[in-house]
Structure prediction request, 395 residues.
Amino acid sequence: MDKQTLTNLAAQLATPAYIFDLDAFEKRAAMVHRYFGDKTGLCFSIKANPFLLGRLPDIFDKIEVCSPGELTVCEKTGVDTGKIIFSGVNKTEKDVARAAEDEVGTFTAESLLHVQMINAEAIKRGKVYPVLLRVTDVRGGSQFGMEEAQVLDIIRNRADYPGMEIVGIHYFTGTQKKKAKPILRELDYLADLIDRVKADLDFTIERIEYGTGLAVDYFDADADKLEEERLASISEGIRALAEKAALTVEMGRFFAAPCGYYLTKVIDVKTNYGINYAIVDGGMNQLKYDGQLQGMQIPVMVHLKDREDTGAVQAWTLCGSLCTTADILTRNAEFDSLAIGDVLVFCRTGAYSVTEGMAVFLSREMPVVSVYSEKNGLTVIREMLYSDVFNTPAL
Prediction:
């Protein structure tokens, strides 16, 4: 989104605020589809940004839902529940029953307990539910999924679960993978698993839901180029696996991060012992970058102001509104004549930033949430929650 467009949109919004560029989101999804090919389905993990849910491009085949709250979001936005993969490490009988009532398309099972609950609910309803068995990280495991041996045992004894159709495997080991090697190794593992299960158990793994964990570069000016290169580096492996089973690639961060903008206004400026501080009306409770620690990284930002540059460039430490010394958004960021009333736009905030921050800490105002497209313009989908004044423009 160019600076003039941001300026125009900022004039319509109170701060702090998020803007999610739907055109950029759709373009990103189309790029992934182009590299992975027509045989690879795309799944959006809505934990990355549930505000995009009601506006997903048609290119997404599946929606990953990991909690009862996310299921509520799906219900309220009226999405096609047949696209839902109901995942998550903590499923209760109540959760399974509710997902069954919503007629979700697929369940995942991360434990034997999940298998038993899904099977029991299906039998009670006279149904058979498609289930993906989640395999934990073969390099040592985590709390997610099951050891391969247990997954194979469930497949071996599949006749014991008449309420389930085991349709495939769910595999995701972590996020922010910058190198192709670990992803290609995982794709080889899944291909080998398909062959071994067929040979040893006479069972065909029809589907694979795979989370690549592709990394997003938050602090590099060449982020788009780096990320496309990363995408290209695994595309051949993805296409090869899609020839062996119906493959769906699940991602959230990689799809959504570039489409987000966080707007916050400069409220105060001061200099303490030679360091310039700008206090903004947002803070770390609303702005979260993976890899940011005590403001040591400088994300891509846009400085909006109603005057010309003067050449008076200075380094600034940007601090939020919280009563903690930890609330530093970035250090040594250079701006031309930064002043009270200016708006700073933090880019690449489309994934997790809106959900991972300590939103209720200090009871600061919740930010406006909006979406933008060239066709439909700006749409506010959540106003501020506490303030009596909603429509004070940013500039």
Remarks:
- The chain has a mean pLDDT of 94.
